[in-house]
Amino acid sequence: MAAKYSLQLADPAQVSEQVQQAAMPRCVAIVLARAQRITPRRTGKLVRSLYGMVDRGGRRGVVAAKSPHAHLVHEGVQAHSLKPKRKDRGSFLVIPTMLGPLVRRSAQHPGYGGQPFLTDAAEQSRGEIDRALREVV
């Protein structure tokens, strides 16, 4: 499941449709650039999966990540146990590490608090978005 979050203007009625349509591509580009800077990098796949688009006739902008693990990084995951998918007597987990693979019958994932990079990017971009809207007007 990819992570996808949208940000709307506090009061869209205050901004005309023409201004929204003219400014939305710039606003999406601003948030996308910020998201690319603050997204956690381990392999770079998550950053490369980020994209922005304008839909609904130019009135709605979306910045999202296509990576299948994006929602886990963004929202985090609770601690849980890991067991082999197969129930055979000889099935094991193979856990890749820097020192080589670890082979175990089960393991405990400690959980991860998450880093809401898309939400943070949208929040941190509010000032730039306001400036972009003023430039269009």
Care to describe what's here?
- The protein has 137 residues and is of the alpha+beta class.
- The protein has 2 domains: 3-77 and 112-136; 78-111, no CATH class.
- It has 5 helices and 7 strands, in the order E-H-H-E-E-H-E-E-E-E-H-H.
- The chain has helices at 17-38, 45-48, 70-75, 117-124, 126-136, and strands at residues 3-6, 50-55, 60-65, 80-82, 93-95, 102-104, 107-109.
- The strands form 3 sheets. A 3-stranded antiparallel sheet has the order 1-3-2. Strands 4-7 form a two-stranded antiparallel sheet. Strands 5-6 form a two-stranded antiparallel sheet.
- A hairpin with a 4-residue loop joins strand 2 and strand 3.
- The two termini are 38 Å apart.
- 19% of the residues are buried.
Percent range of helical residues: 25-40%
Strand tally: 7
List the domain count as a whole number.
2
Shape: elongated
